[in-house]
């Protein structure tokens, strides 16, 4: 009997999540474990798929990594502060054990796939996904493909203009005042000094301003039909609406404003684990 199960894996800074489904989409098994040494991750994943008959698998990974399927280094992890992972290729290590085709993309590109096909981006031709958490990242899904070039997009390191009256130092160790340095989770917590974001309107205003500038940059550069936001910072009540208002101010009725239309342009992510869902779709696409 030919292999008929599919494996999806999402790697993160602290954990690995995985799921195995049969050919009909029924979940056979799923779980998570710490993302420690890469060799331990390979051992853990090969143990959970033992005897399953994996037809294809896909990895939604944290970056930076090589996502060009035509590269001999496809799936290779580039320089990362995570100990032991620089220069490691999880996909190829798993392929040696599973003897199955694989796909690799960034976690945010995989999330864009899932939200476009299953979630808040359904019905849109081009969907951008942006996550605002410990870091800021984004991916673009257009007509069946994610945006990839020599590497993958790193929109979290786009530069923004400081909001009037904002003297908070940027926290990005590479760029200081990039969007990640100004509005990702650690920067937000530094601004709050123990308060809750919903109880600090001046902080919400600054964060919304920077994220609105990011949206404007994506509108000008990518022209997505819809932008889906996920991540812990965006779960704050009222944040999405403030970001949309700030984005419209940044676009300032320029011609690209037609993309945003008159109604809500931004959408909250609707999938609990969009990266893993996207990885499963990527795995199934290999055998479609």
From TrEMBL:
<dbReference type="InterPro" id="IPR049874">
    <property type="entry name" value="ROK_cs"/>
</dbReference>
<dbReference type="Pfam" id="PF00480">
    <property type="entry name" value="ROK"/>
</dbReference>
<dbReference type="InterPro" id="IPR000600">
    <property type="entry name" value="ROK"/>
</dbReference>
<comment type="similarity">
    <text>Belongs to the ROK (NagC/XylR) family.</text>
</comment>
<protein>
    <submittedName>
        <fullName>ROK family protein</fullName>
    </submittedName>
</protein>
